[in-house]
Design brief:
single chain, alpha+beta, Outer membrane lipoprotein wza fold like, wza like fold, seven-stranded mixed β-sheet, five-stranded mixed β-sheet, 6 helices
Length: 349
Amino acid sequence: MLVTTGAGCSSGTYRATNLPPELVAPATLDLETINLGGLAEHSVSTEVIQPGDVLDVSMVNDYSKLTTSTTPVRVADDGTVVVPLVGKVNVVGMEVVQAEQTVNAQSVARGIFRNPCITVAMRQCRTRRVTVVGAVNKPGPVELPRGGSSLMTALIAAGGLTKEAGTEVEIRHTDSRQGPLAAQAAVGPNGSTVLASYQQSPAPVASTAIKVDLTSATTGAVKVPDLCDGDVVHVDKRMLKPIYVIGLVHKPGEFPYPTSQEIRVLDALALAGGVSNPVAEDVLVIRRLPNAKEPSRIAISIQAAKNGSDNLLLAPGDTVTVEQTPLTVTVDMIQTFVRFGIGASMSWF
């Protein structure tokens, strides 16, 4: 229902009970209702060997005394390890038992041992170091295990979301393994090492960023990739505009909009100390849409709001004004007259 008003207001005044969809205030976001478990991706077994892992390779080096030697080896970026006596062996993507079988088989194939006794064990899985900033309780760098490098794990490691957190998260990835300059060394005439030149390393890959909406991601509507080493996770903070209460109220002013609970017309009036005129009934909520040339006005009846039908859900930035009417003006005049009359009478004593 559109209530027409005076000339100059092209948008008119709407009733709280019959608002067009674009004027309905968005539902209040309660982050505690978001199940962050929906951000978890499939876990990677710590037994599956990946680049950067450190393995312990043990072999019997004296069968007469059954003495063994253990050597820690790191898995290179190409997925290989250098096994003592055996040489390079590709083990990436294998479980530890399979890698052990592969190393033993290679030692026989290369003529190193006839009956090898080589064991392989996982010494240390490579972790991923990411930085979480923004609206989290403990911003800063966090270490994530390889089997748990999801966005959920990173947010939990950073102490979880603050009450001011929004639903948008930016994940920025940069390849941090490439440096700007590499020194080239050479041997001088006297056998000393001298610096020959600097060679420019390949230009680092430009950082890429993806936006993740937590509400959609936790329901499975979008797929969130696992985090990589060096990633930066930024949780946006909700910047909610305050509401304003003016007109016939005891304490007009600006009030912060709650971040995790809804606020309605009667709540706003209570924040402003209640109405200052006992017969005040008409309230206008002035709501500004982002692309609208003029604000929209929503008419509220205080009595109807108390009955539940007009207690409008407010949006950030709304202005609530308790209007003057002929009746409120009359009551104000009577109250002023009574106060003036009593004051004048008291002055005679």
